[in-house]
Task: inverse folding
């Protein structure tokens, strides 16, 4: 048998269910991988904390299995981004302001997965409050890309991508607001799924942009995603925006042959601003589809050019409101030297938030202010609704949209740290998916000559994530596993 | 100086739903600080609101009672501001699509009846409460129990023309909210709160000048609403005479009423006005309101106080005053209606009994009529005993006192205590004879023309009969006997 840490989540499930491995052995293997990496001269720094109680939980899980009480996800380890609450665990969002915040309740998705036997093994590093594309804006320092430690893993779920690609966890939960799961998945050479808005409950996920936020999954096999989705979806009485989905029986995925699929390739993501190497990979991926009997057509969708602009209005607007609660009054960081209420707000928030977060709060407050609301927020919301209509029109004629996940290859640590605009532009291909609230799967499609991973996204209509995964499974079996 | 007073009111009423507006915490006043909270209403990271369907129904009920239009779709918005009692840093409220629009309320004052238009009524959540220690430690405390309590904010058009009218308007709203069961409108507990916008239109040099609009806050009773507005009319008049500042020059100000000093104090200038950065609440879906729901709530709307008063006067024949008193609270009206249910006699008797005897006890015990131990049906039974001459009015009071003190049924009490009225002529005559024999001096006085002696003797008759003699018969027989002497 291969190393435990090389196994995907579904492979581990098979080994556990067949009593070939114990839950404790599995957890220990990943723990040792993490500890070994900690000794590296440049550790990946994907985990903020590897949970001390993971082994104990694994023992309890093994006991359950012995009693024939194994559940759907019994004993499976999962890394969790540090903005998804787990009762009793610290959840910092990579921010000083929540450095000591211990969650008094669990997010719905963690609760559901735990009830099925998942063992949360650790919490992963992230750009502060999900704001960033490189996993460098964190009080815990930058996370590194396991494919090349001088590069960023992408962000904001960089920690989750790094631990999965770095074989310190078989799979991880991340979160997306504008591409924060897919971009790091692409940078680290793994799968990254952004489900439709509403597929997974947002209850207990620290809010960034409420109309955009969604839990995503990072793994090395599409089947892992089906497995987690099967147990994670369903209406949540705590989240009005959660959808009434039933994914029972989707695992294991039935591979779907792309034959007869009509695929749209927007020109806007195949022109200027997109790295040639990436464009070539997209063309190659499109050829694979055609070889399978699908048709791929270039389409013009000019509105896609506006999506980064409207994203950087809507997301900060919602963020500015969502982050007001971090005021030093009830929980989180408070400057005890403050002399008045106003001083307390100013000092606590000035020290508690990093620069990028402050930048987005400023932008958000600005675009919502009377006098600017109509020109920015309202206009952005109008463009967003046109975008939704245009995307719906595309799906009248096509089954899928294909596009690069990132316009560029993984970049060096620090390269864009002082250039927020350049950083924002890495989201150019991903934000429209969040704005349109549709699902997208970033598929690892090989590497550049120097070995840097490239991801390409399959984008479907609302709630078609299982379809995306089933198509990806065909690719994974025929091509992905060769890489 | 000729001028008009222009007033508009913003009234907040807390809705009496079982749970809070957006979470499942119990919706009740008080409690140990921060004991009635959850991740949602205390604004913990990651928590999300979920609309309690009851708040929609309560708001529709209230809206229909004040003749509002209920739209097909309504939605929530975030009103952003930072304050320690607001744990999310925004209040979930309604901005441009309120649940109730364009209603009215007819109010009656010494000047007659007038229609005050209502611009809108919208749903929002209440904030918590800050308290500040008075021990010199400088500490402040935040109690979040009230956070998330559902509120309906009812905004009038600036149609009110006097402080008296303003009070009548708020009183009118209060009784409608009480009678529809939407709110208990307890001003002391803050379940009804009123802010008022007031300015003057001054007519001078053939022109109309508007003084700066003042938003008055911190008025916690009808008395303080009246006093604050009265004060503000004079203050604005004097300020105009002194400085001639207009609305265009100064805009809107906020002033707070101080009960102790009896004055209003400047709180905020227009330049300091809050920037609320409203935007649609992304965590909540817009709400479609089915026509059938509005119709069914409309059909089941209870009789409103004005309709009740009219019926009490016109159908039941009560006086204006008693009709008014009996509708001063839904509980009292309901008590009265239960007491007259199935009663064949003159309901005025029951009305009087409730307003005097029952209310005396209720007021004395400082309780709400709904907590009064004696059921309304027993009051009816007591009055029936009076009607049928089984007991006298005086005995009725004795029986009632016993009912209050020990409980029980009036018929039973009368029977057990032998309080049945004596209507036997012979028996009464025996008593009178005894009284006349025992009081020769008074008899002399009577004969000498002192009429009040008869009253004294009558008293003695009742006393000797232990109040049981039928007073009417006793009085007649006494006179006959005296005159025959």
Result:
């Amino acid at each position: 048998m291969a190393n435990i840490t090389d196994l995907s989540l579904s492979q581990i499930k098979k080994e556990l269910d067949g009593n070939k491995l114990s839950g404790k052995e599995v957890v220990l293997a990943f723990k040792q991988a993490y500890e070994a990496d900690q000794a590296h001269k440049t550790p990946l720094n994907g985990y903020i904390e590897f949970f001390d109680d993971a082994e104990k939980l694994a023992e309890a899980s093994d006991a359950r299995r012995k009693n024939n009480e194994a559940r759907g996800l019994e004993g499976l380890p999962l890394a969790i981004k540090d903005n998804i609450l787990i009762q009793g665990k610290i959840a910092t969002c990579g921010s000083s302001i929540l450095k000591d915040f211990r969650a008094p309740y669990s997010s719905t998705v963690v609760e559901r997965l735990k009830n099925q036997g998942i063992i949360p093994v650790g919490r992963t590093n992230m750009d502060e409050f999900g704001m960033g594309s490189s996993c460098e804006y964190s009080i815990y320092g930058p996370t590194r890309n396991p494919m090349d430690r001088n590069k960023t893993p992408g962000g904001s779920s960089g920690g989750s991508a790094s631990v999965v690609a770095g074989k310190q966890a078989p799979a991880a939960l991340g979160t997306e607001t504008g591409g924060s799961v897919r971009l790091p998945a692409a940078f680290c050479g793994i799968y990254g799924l952004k489900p439709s808005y509403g597929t997974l409950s947002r209850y207990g996920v620290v809010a960034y942009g409420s109309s955009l936020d969604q839990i995503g999954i990072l793994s090395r096999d599409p089947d892992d995603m089906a497995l987690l989705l099967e147990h994670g979806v369903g209406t949540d009485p705590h989240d009005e925006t959660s959808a009434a989905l039933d994914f029972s029986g989707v695992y294991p995925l039935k591979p779907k042959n792309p034959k007869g699929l009509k695929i749209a390739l927007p020109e806007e993501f195949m022109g200027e601003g997109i790295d040639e190497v990436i464009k070539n990979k997209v063309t190659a991926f499109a050829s694979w589809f055609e070889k399978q009997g699908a048709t791929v057509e270039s389409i013009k969708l000019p509105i896609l050019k506006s999506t980064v602009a409207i994203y950087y209005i809507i997301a900060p607007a919602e963020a500015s409101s969502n982050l007001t609660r971090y005021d030093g009054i009830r929980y989180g960081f408070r400057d005890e030297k403050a002399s008045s209420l106003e001083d307390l707000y100013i000092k606590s928030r000035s020290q508690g938030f990093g620069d990028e977060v402050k930048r987005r709060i400023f932008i958000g407050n600005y675009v919502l202010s009377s006098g600017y609301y109509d020109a920015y927020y309202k206009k952005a919301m109008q463009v967003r609704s046109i975008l939704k209509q245009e995307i719906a029109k595309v799906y009248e004629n096509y089954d899928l949209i294909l596009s690069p996940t990132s316009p560029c290859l993984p970049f060096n640590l620090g390269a864009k740290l002082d250039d927020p605009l350049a950083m924002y532009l890495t989201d150019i291909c991903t934000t429209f998916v969040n704005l349109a609230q549709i699902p997208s799967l970033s598929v690892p499609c090989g590497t550049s000559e120097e070995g840097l991973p490239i991801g390409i996204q399959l984008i479907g209509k609302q709630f078609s994530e299982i379809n995306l995964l089933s198509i990806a499974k065909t690719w994974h079996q025929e091509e992905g596993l060769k890489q | 100086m000729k001028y008009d007073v222009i007033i508009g009111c913003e009234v907040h009423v807390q809705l009496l739903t079982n749970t809070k507006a957006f979470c499942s915490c119990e919706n009740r006043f008080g409690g140990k600080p921060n004991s009635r909270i959850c991740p949602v209403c205390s604004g913990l990271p990651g928590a999300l609101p979920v609309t309690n369907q009851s708040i929609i129904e309560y708001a529709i009920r209230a809206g229909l009672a004040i003749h509002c239009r209920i739209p097909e779709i309504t939605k929530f918005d975030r009103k952003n501001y930072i304050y320690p009692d607001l744990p999310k840093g925004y209040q979930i409220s309604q901005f441009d699509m309120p649940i109730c629009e364009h209603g009215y309320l007819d109010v009656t004052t010494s000047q007659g009846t007038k229609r005050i238009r209502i611009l809108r009524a919208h749903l929002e959540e209440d904030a918590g409460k800050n308290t500040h220690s008075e021990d010199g430690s400088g500490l402040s405390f935040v109690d979040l129990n009230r956070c998330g309590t559902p509120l309906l904010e009812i905004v009038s058009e600036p149609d009110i023309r006097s402080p008296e009218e303003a009070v009548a308007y708020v009183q009118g709203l209060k009784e409608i909210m009480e009678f529809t069961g939407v709110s208990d409108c307890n001003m002391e507990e803050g379940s009804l709160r009123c802010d008022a916008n007031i300015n003057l239109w001054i007519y001078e040099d053939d022109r109309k000048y508007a003084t700066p609009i003042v938003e008055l806050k911190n008025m916690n009773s009808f008395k303080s609403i009246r006093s604050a507005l009265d004060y503000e009319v004079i203050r604005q008049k004097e300020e105009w005479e002194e400085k001639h500042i207009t609305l265009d020059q100064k805009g809107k100000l906020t002033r707070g009423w101080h009960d102790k000093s009896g004055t209003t104090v400047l709180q905020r200038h227009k330049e300091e006005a809050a920037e609320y950065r409203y935007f649609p609440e992304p965590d909540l879906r817009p709400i479609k309101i089915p026509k059938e729901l509005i119709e069914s709530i409309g059909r089941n709307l209870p009789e409103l106080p004005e309709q009740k008063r009219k019926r009490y006067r016109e159908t039941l024949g009560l006086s204006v005053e008693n009709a008014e008193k009996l509708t001063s609270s839904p509980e009292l009206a309901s008590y009265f209606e239960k007491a007259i249910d199935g009663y064949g006699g003159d309901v005025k008797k029951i009305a009087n009994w409730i307003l005097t005897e029952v209310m005396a006890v209720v007021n004395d015990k400082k309780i709400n009529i709904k907590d009064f131990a004696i059921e309304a049906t027993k009051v009816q039974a007591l009055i029936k005993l009076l009607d049928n001459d089984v007991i006298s009015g005086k005995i009725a009071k004795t029986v009632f006192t016993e009912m209050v003190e020990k409980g029980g049924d009036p018929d039973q009490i009368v029977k057990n205590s032998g309080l049945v009225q004596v209507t036997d002529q012979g028996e009464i005559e025996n008593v009178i004879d005894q009284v006349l024999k025992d009081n020769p001096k008074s008899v002399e006085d009577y004969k000498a023309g002192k009429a009040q002696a008869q009253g004294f003797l009558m008293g003695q008759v009742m006393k000797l009969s232990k109040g049981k003699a039928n007073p009417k018969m006793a009085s007649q027989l006494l006179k006959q006997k005296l005159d025959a002497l």
In short: Chain A touches chain B at residues 83-85, 91, 93, 98, 101, 103-105, 107, 202-207, 209-211, 237-241, 317-318, 320-321, 323-325, 327, 329-331, 341, 345, 365, 368-370, 373, 377 (CB under 8 Å). The two ends of chain A are 19 Å apart (CA to CA).
